[in-house]
Amino acid sequence: MSRTVPAALSIVLTAFSVGLAEETLRPEIISAGPTTRPVQFADGSLHAYFSRFGKLFSVSSKNGREWSKPNAEFDLPHKSMGGGLSLVDSQGEVHVILTHARGTGRQPAVTRFIDLWHCRTFEGRRRWGKPQRIWEGYCGAVLDFQQLKNGRLVVPFAAWKKPGETVAAETGSNYTTVVTSDDSGKTWKLSATKLTSPCRAGYNGNNYGAIEPTILQLKDGRVWMLMRTQTGFLYESFSKDGVSWSPARASRFHSSTSPAALVRLPDGRIVIVWNNCEQPPKHDKAGVYGGRDALHAAISADEGKTWRGFREIYRDPHRDETPPKRGDRGTAYPVAVATRDGKLLVASGQGGRRTLIRLDPNWLTQTKQVESFENDLSRWHVWKPIGPARGYWRDRTLGPVLVAHPTQKTAKVLHVRKPDQKAPDCATWNFPAGNNGEISLRLLANKGSGGVSLEFNNRFFNPADNRGEQQSAFVFPIASAGTPGKAITLPPDRWHTLVVQWDLEKKHSLAVLNGKVVARRTIKNVPFGGISYLRIRSTATGTDIAGVLIESVQADIKHQ
Which CATH number does 7-20+369-559 carry? Predict the structure, then answer.
């Protein structure tokens, strides 16, 4: 005789099996590692280079987890040199790009300069050559350095416009270009290309334009570039030779004003690492720092035509706290290298929060994810901004919390409500992206609850950002029985199983409550990459201490 497994038990059993795979493949944070991009030698060892105190240092590792103490390579010509972006060329020699800040003023490209310098090894890495300046001006962060199949070295970077340069004013203060070398770094040439992106007045952030590029050579020989912009998207350009580039245009990748990293795996697949985040809006016309609370990765097996994953590989460990009042912070500025065993090492973060992440790319192709709140909320975003904004700073406080399960002594549940006059609670959860899939929830609406809305997105929105609902692919409001005008009502003080299913190809979604279809939605805007975010947001208009309890959440992607 066949028997049906109860929904709650089914979720628990699935959570156990999925949890094993999750813990095995989940991104690993390396507690002590380099903050610059490592490179790999022919013997499989990993090495990273960085400048400090007027010297070039290196650290090494056999496995990417344990790293040596810094070793001084040689004295640099200037004590103020920074950076250390490196590559190993086709002959096994190391090349390093450095920056040198000079000038006594504060006006970029006029009285303040940051030049590009290059140095390299010779004779099988037995000696270093003399560093040389390869570009003079004011550049921003240099995040990539590649050698093409024909041996050409390419350094993409953003240049601050000099007085009198013929670049449209509405494209910001910078343009992106490259310097190249065809003789292993002996001489360098500046490309005539100046790539730009549009800027707009009133933007919540600095209108720098197209900056901080990353590049990757495709199998057809073209070189693909992605640039940070203030348009809400990464911009892209293509080149046949790495010197001349097509006009920049918006790519399909949403992003805050943050850069990306492109890397090819040994098996030929491509991985992109970036902040798949929506830049938050201004608050009362004052700027607010943001869009960098989570770092994401996606993977492509067809040269970028389709992508899977869109998963958070690193969340700012201090995102729930009051942020520092000055300086950058968050998870941005990734640089990545693929190791011989097919793993990725990603150095990322800023504001004292830079770390090294070891990632198994196969984690990006998983199709299930379960949360049953056994431990904490480290895989959720549950903070909310409070108070006024000043100088791109705004205070934060915790929103939803874990509370004791009403009937299970050792279990915890997520409590979403509006306990005070601050913004309503919102809990944000990322899962493997899918064009076709479902989310299963076990939830209970306490008597008197003001309800919640379930919002489905393809990118991260700040928990209290109303656009997370306005720009969702679809939304299902949930309320306690007796509340008028809601699509789904829950009899209070009872546990329910709610399954939300979607099919982006058919532009259709539906909600199934305790085995019965209770609501349908038409998806008007099909999001790139598929659905990868659930937001559970209180819809209470007044104080609501009752709220809704969430016992478990499970994502099951049917087709990616």
Answer: 2.60.120.200
